[in-house]
Amino acid sequence: NIEEKEHFCFRNCMSRDLGLSEKDYDNHTAVEEFIQGIENDFTTVLILEYLPMSLVLLKRRMCWTIYDILYIDKANMTSKYKRAYVTGQMKDTFYKRNYADLLLYTRLNDSLHRQINQEGTDFVEEVKHFVGVNNNVSRYCLSDTSKLQGKMVVKRTR
Hints:
The chain is an all-alpha fold. The protein is built from 8 helices and no strands.
């Protein structure tokens, strides 16, 4: 029974986690009002597909340093999972069943890119610098070098 499995979150997982009631999943007016509330509550969001840009934007908003946004990039490590082939029909079904999440993602993604476009010409260079530093730090931390050489020094950015 699919309704019983909903609690494992097969539908509108992001929206559910942010407070959308399951009874409102198919109510487009309720979904629109819910997303408007999310947009009012969160001025900056991070999106995984644009994680480096999202983190640099967050760094600027929070007046943080590059040290505050470094992370180990496990996505580049080998995975035992293989990417599944997704057909057009599978996508269509997913989009229909996850209307709230699709709309939420689209709106927040648009918002993120509007904010990035307002950051100025040095933003792209800062993101490139961050990606390079983060890759170096990830490699360093995951290698035996860190045990032999001690601390790694990272140059300050904007």
